[in-house]
Design goal:
Elements (H helix, E strand, L loop, with lengths): L3 E3 L5 H10 L8 E5 L2 H9 L3 E4 L5 H8 L4 E4 L8 H14 L4 E7 L13 H12 L3 E7 L6 H5 L3 H4 L1 E4 L5 E2 L4 H14 L5 E5 L5 E2 H12 L4 E4 L2 H10 L4 H15 L9 H6 L6 H8 L3
Parallel strand pairs: 1-2, 1-4, 2-3, 4-5, 5-6, 6-9, 7-11
Antiparallel strand pairs: 8-10
Helix pairs in contact: 1-8, 3-4, 4-5, 9-13, 10-11
Length: 289
């Protein structure tokens, strides 16, 4: 009987993965690990094999992997030592006799020309998994469409526009729910033969496209104004944003400007069994329009 460990079970991606898995396998076959006691008790009460712990707690990882044959490693946040946390999961999987591991990486064109060096950790994790001897599937996921409310700001409809340093760069924005459902489908239906899937939307969109679509949906004129880095930094400084945060936003957007995020494939559509949400469909949901 197949047993799957879903890490990051209390997050949005982990939640949808679990919902999809439940269409085909029982809660008893799904191991979950979470840092939150309340979530742990909730999952346990629903019949899941639930464990308290995190990527930094190797003993908890090993407990959660007992009897498991497949691990889904949902990427850690970038606040701590992400690479060490990922290594902990891979090493624990090897020690506990897990045969297969899947990882939520990122769909980026060229690791050698990244401005946002934090993204390099995804490639390093891929390397570590490939060298581990475990059978693997790498999900190289496009940028979540859910970032767009943060990109354009809460007051976008009041002020009629937004500013960024992404130029005319394009992104194959996808809804997190579509990505999560497709990954779960793969976990349920496919053998692990060291595949790499690029999960992207069916088209790539610029921030001009985002502004035009918001205009269409809201009936208000929304404009995107691309600016150079010094201008943007000065604007953010006036808004009181910490310099570290501003630098992170800038680097992220410079990669967009350089088309790191513009890859388009049909992998996501194939594994979903339907077309992923378009920009218009996603923005309608995200902005309640």
């Amino acid at each position: 009987m197949k047993r799957v460990l879903v890490t990051g079970a209390s997050g949005q991606m982990g939640t949808v993965v679990i919902e999809t898995l439940l269409k085909r396998i029982s809660p008893q076959q799904i191991h979950v690990i979470t840092r939150k006691e309340e979530k742990h008790l909730e999952l346990q009460s629903k019949g899941f094999q639930a464990f308290i712990g995190d990527y930094g707690d190797v003993a908890s990882l090993e407990r959660a992997m007992e009897g498991v044959d497949t691990v889904l490693l949902i990427s850690s946040g970038d606040q701590g030592d992400r690479m060490q946390e990922h290594k902990n999961v891979v090493d624990a999987a090897k020690k506990m006799g897990v045969t297969s591991i899947a990882y939520t990486s990122r769909s980026l064109r060229n690791r050698s020309t990244l401005t946002n060096t934090l993204m390099e950790e995804h490639f390093l994790t891929e390397d570590y998994i490939k060298e581990s001897g475990l059978d693997y599937i790498i999900f190289q996921n496009a940028l979540y469409m859910e970032v767009l409310p943060y990109y354009v700001g809460k007051a976008v409809f009041e002020i009629g526009g937004f500013t960024q340093v992404a130029g005319n760069g394009k992104v194959s924005f996808t809804l997190r729910r579509d990505l999560s459902e497709a990954m779960a489908n793969v976990l349920l239906n496919e053998a692990f033969n060291n595949q790499v899937y690029k999960f992207t939307a069916s088209a790539a969109y610029s921030l001009y496209d985002v502004a035009n679509t918001l205009s269409e949906l809201s009936g208000k004129e929304i404009n995107y104004t691309p600016v150079e880095v010094p201008v943007y930094k000065e604007l953010m400084k006036k808004q009181g944003l910490p310099e570290v945060m501003v630098d992170k936003i800038v680097n992220f957007n410079l990669d967009i400007k350089n088309d790191q995020e513009s890859t388009v494939t049909d992998d996501l559509e194939v594994k979903l069994g339907r077309k992923p949400a378009t920009l218009k469909e996603g923005l309608k949901i995200l902005f309640n329009l």
